[in-house]
Amino acid sequence: MAMKSKGFAACAAVAMLGVVGVGVNGASADETSTTPVLKTELSGVEGTEANIVLFDVAAGWETQRHIHPGHVFVYVTEGSIQVDVDGEEPRTFAAGEAFYELPDKPMVARTTSADEGARFIVFQVGPTGEPIMVPHPQ
Predict the structure, then answer these.
(1) Domain limits at 36?
(2) Helix/strand/coil (H, E, C) string of the chain?
(3) CA-CA distance, 104 to 13, in Å (whole number)?
(4) Could you tell me if residue 87 is inside a domain?
(5) Among 58, 70, 53, 68, which Cα is nearest to 25's?
(6) Predicted structure pTM score
(7) pLDDT in tens, 38-54
(8) Rounded to an integer, what distance in angstroms lies between the CA atom of residue 42 and that of residue 51?
């Protein structure tokens, strides 16, 4: 059981790394805030760290097209966001919902309302020192 927990934690930390590093289109930087909650190396999983970041984004927020080098888990606490992953139908997630993003899948995320922003928590497990998000232009 301990190995399964360590594997899950490793996957979750990589996911978090993918969210923070990519630029935002639309909303200006002062309308988007990120609050690091936790960043720590994982004991027993060499070269792997966990990251948790709280995002508070304005109406009109949109990421650049990007990938995550690790596994990302997102929990929406306020508002709603749409996630467009290449090759998949767009998905919308509202407050109280969570979703998982596979590594290395090009995607764009955005708020769904022109009037309301969103808050969400991102948890990623990934290689130590790697960015959470990596730009991936078409």
Answers:
(1) 2-128
(2) CHHHHHHHHHHHHHHHHHHHCCCEEECCHHHEEEEEEEEEECCCCCCEEEEEEEEEECCCEEECCEECCCCEEEEEEECEEEEEECCCCCEEEECCCEEEECCCCCEEEEECCCCCCEEEEEEEEEECCCCCCEECCC
(3) 15
(4) yes
(5) 58
(6) 0.78
(7) 999 999 999 999 999 99
(8) 10
